[in-house]
What we know:
287 residues, alpha/beta, five-stranded mixed β-sheet, 10 strands, disordered C terminus
Amino acid sequence: MPGVDKKTVIGKISYTNxxxxxxxxxxxxxxxxxxxxxxxxxxxxxxxxxxDIHIGALSSFAYAEAADKLQLLxxxxxxxxxxxxxxxxxxxxxxxxxxxxxxxxxxxxxxSVNLLKILMEKALDGAPEYKTMEPDLDTMMESxxxxxxxxxxxxxxxxxxKKYHVTDLGKWWKEWTGCSMTFAVWAVNRSAAADNxxxxxxxxxxxxxxxxxxxxxxxxxxxxxxxxxxxTESYWHGYFNNLCYDFNEMQQxxxxxxxxxAYELGLLKHDVTPExxxxxxVMRVKE
Length: 287
């Protein structure tokens, strides 16, 4: 755990959808030595589980797997109350045709993969065969009836796709459950929070400030997305404005339902209730 001479490691999701919560996070401005580690969710998930990363973002499913070691930061998530636009299932026919088909899964995150399994089994009563592959649509579709892509890979594929049906998993989940879906959460390692609560509270505050500043003026983030990924100004404004970065009761309710279904299907070993880290006392002491 971070001590006097050890840097706090902040986990940063490298996908575009999390940019607003990281854009104005500058570790060098913190009162504690810290560094940022930008990675795909699968790497961050492992780091948060084993304690190499002390605070930051990880996929919702990975939080559930390590909930005994982590607590969630209030007010921070990547959620969607309907279409998410970057968790997409590409298929030759409608989803109903996939009940006994073969689906290629991206190898970069567990939350979306397990969301698809929940929807296929519980919403459709399907039992497809799954195979995990590198996230390349053309290669995936050579040996499968459908392919699940997430993040920037899904966004790029959606721009150029001309021949496949596209099912947005956020929209499907909303239509089936009536609930919001939370894809990524922000968490703190329990030991790090106990050892250095003031530092963790300062970092959590910086995340919230980044969210506020980003959503007040999306132009810098939109311009960076255009230069790094492509697309148009109107696309990216629509994309970021469509997402929800809060973690209030509505998001928590949807996440609890997701965890319940994952447990019922044996995807999680335990049913998990999201547990928030209460930093209020720490912040009051600081003020």
